[in-house]
Amino acid sequence: MVRLLPLLLSALVVAMAADLPSRKYLNLAAIKAMAAAAEQEALARKAEVTICIVDDSGNLLFLQKADKAGLNTIQFAQRKARYAALYGRPSKAGADQLKGGDLSILVFPDAFPNQGGVPIKVDGQTIGAIACSGAASEVDEAISQAAVDALLKK
Predict the structure, then answer these.
(1) pTM of the model as a whole
(2) What is the pLDDT of residues 108-148, one digit of tens each?
(3) What is the CATH architecture assignment of 24-152?
(4) How many angstroms separate the CA atoms of 24 and 123, rounded?
(5) What is the structure's pLDDT at 18?
(6) Residue 132 to residue 134: CA distance in whole angstroms
């Protein structure tokens, strides 16, 4: 009986491990695909932008500044992407909220009410976000969206 107990415990641990949830995440191939698609869209629009990709917690995974993009676009792109990842909605939603007169957006943690960041959602779950900065805000968002569409093949 004493020898059987470790075997039973091992089987129980294996059975419990099988119940652990699996989680989708942005791997290097996905990051490269999105970066390439964003670059291509920026070139097509003749836009010099900084591209930023973050994980679902807003941690930096990729950052690339075009030669003629301003230095301020580095932080802008990171803040737009972080907002989109943490709140699971485009950063334009915060901008629209502010435009509508709701000043509470200004005190939300990690809020950045400026268009250009887009969440990356798979099966209804936010797995990260991408943002661009350096062009007009609607162009920034279009470049970001093109990258997400390329990843998800929409």
Answers:
(1) 0.86
(2) 999 999 999 999 999 999 999 999 999 999 999 999 999 99
(3) 2-Layer Sandwich (3.30)
(4) 9
(5) 63
(6) 7
Q: Is the pLDDT of residue 13 over 90?
A: no
Which strands, in side-by-side order, build the sheet including 60-65?
60-65, 50-55, 125-133, 117-122
Which residue is listed with tokens 């976000």?
Answer: 129
Task: Locate 88 and state its tokens.
Answer: 């699971």
Instruction: Compare 80 and 2 and report the one with higher pLDDT.
Output: 80
- 129 and 120 Cβ atoms separated by less than 8 Å: yes
